[in-house]
Structure formats: structure tokens, C-alpha cells
Amino acid sequence: MRKNIVAGNWKMNKTLQEGVALATELKEKLASAKPNCDVIIGTPFIHLATVSELLEGSIIKVSAENCADKESGAYTGEVSAAMVKSTGAEYCIIGHSERRSYYGETFEILKEKVLLALKNGLKPIFCIGEKKEERESGKQNDVVKAQLEGSLFNLSAEEFSNIVLAYEPVWAIGTGLTATSDQAEDMHAYIRSLIAGKYGNEVAENTTILYGGSCNPKNAAELFSKPDVDGGLIGGASLKADDFKAIIDAFN
Ligand code: PEP
Hints:
The protein is of the alpha/beta class and 252 residues long. It is 43% helix and 15% strand. The protein is built from twelve helices and eight strands. An eight-stranded parallel barrel has the order 1-2-3-4-5-6-7-8, surrounded by six helices. α1 runs parallel beside α12 and α7 (140-151) crosses α9 (181-199). The protein is globular, with a radius of gyration of 17 Å. The structure holds phosphoenolpyruvate. The site of phosphoenolpyruvate has 13 residues, from β8. It catalyses: D-glyceraldehyde 3-phosphate = dihydroxyacetone phosphate. This is Triosephosphate isomerase.
């Protein structure tokens, strides 16, 4: 059966020292109360090696927030999937809406990133979701379908089984507006039906689909109670150990 996961996305927050302090606090909190779900923290590149070492032996896994769409070479400032893997990180967030909108990441670019992440033994946490105007005009299903088809449905079933999906309606990210649990469930069930159509029921049932968008300690339990919502990708609330832990505890 698929895993329940709570994953943090620190985005461009925390100096190295602040990140180490947050990871240490979280490690201590989770050591005394074993969670009922897998826990991942997504950190900026500069934290990955230090935080991975710090969390060795703990239940918390580490994710990058991005990787390059090229293997290696003259791409100043980029960080390859192989480099991410060499830090000890096991996951890589790919296709976050901030990367799509601020850095022009297209379906094709994201397809390359996913292939390179998989090739280097990283599990992609692949983000999909519609913008406000797309939901208002009832296009959310078409948008999400195109995102899946454009960057993931080239994968074999075996490759796809390493993907974690995160449905993140763009209008809910960092806005305090959360999708209702029914809106999240409708979309997650639809996503699962698309996976079933492409790869069959077994792959679909085994795919973890996270919800992301202003998830917090107050709304997490309601969202996670839905059958197709397998946890959350958490931005703002992952920056405070108590809030992140409270979201993890929603699975208790
Ligand atoms: C995110 O950026 O992935 C996210 C879900 O952010 P927030 O929880 O702050 O809305």
C-alpha cells in the first residue's frame, strides 16, 4: 500500500546555521514520538549535506527543492541530480509552481529533470496544480492532466512507481486560502484515475499524492482524512518545528 508522507519545503529560507537548528529540533521532537507517516524535509541546496548527515539514523529523510535539467558541465550556478544524490538526499521536489512561474520551467524542462533525478536514484516529489483563474473557469482538471502528460507520462510504470505527486493549487500556496478537503479529494481522485488509465490500478493505488497549499496544524487532520489525500507538502508551516510536528501528528 502507498505511504503517507508529510514533507516540508523550506523554499529560500534559513541560513545554514538556522537550518541546522531547525533540523536538530525536529529530529529531537520526532525521536520521542514516532510518527505514523514518513517525514521528509526539503531544504535549499546548501543545507543538504549537513542536514543529511545530521539526520542519519533518524526517521526524517531529506529532499532538494530542485535540480538541473542537464547532467553536468558548463552550467554556472546549477546543481545536478548527481550532486544532490551525493549529499545523502533521497528526494527532489520538481515542478513547484514557483519554479514554473518565476523561472520559466516548461513541461519539457521538467521532463528532463525527472529523468535525471530518477537516473541518479532520487525520488521526485512532482508538483502539479492549477492557477486561480484556471479554477474559476473550471479548467483545473485539464491543467493537471496536461502537466502529468507533459512531464511524467513518458515514464515506464516501473519508473513512475518512484514518483510522489503533490497537488498544489497555486491559489492556495502561501495565501492562507486552503482548498476544502472535498476540493482536494475530488482532484486527488481524478489524478489517481488518470494514473490508473495510464499505468493500471495497482500503480495508481500505490502512488502517494500529497496536498499542498496553506496546510497547517488546524486543517491538516481534515485534509488527510480524505481517502485519496496521502499527506501534505508543507511550505510556511514547515519552518517552525512545533507546527510541522503538529501536522505530522494529524496522522495519529
Ligand atoms: C509550497 O510551497 O509547497 C506550499 C505548500 O506552501 P504553503 O504551505 O506555504 O502554502
